[in-house]
Please model this.
Amino acid sequence: MKITKYNNFKNISGKKLKELRKQAKLSQQDLAEKLQLQGIDLTSKEISKIETNKRLVQDFELFAFSKIFGVSADEFNTEN
Model:
């Protein structure tokens, strides 16, 4: 079974990603550049789509976010 939405959202990690990015005083472009240094090719537009729950997040992307922000991947596993 393929799940592409959860409660009408494509991911539940976008809100937390935006919160962590703003706390770190990073723009979406800054985050995209940090991800590219880790070999993850995301644009600022794709990051915006993740933050607004319009794009699915791959597991390797989630782990890269965790590494950049120094948090557990579990931090992104919340709707609050």
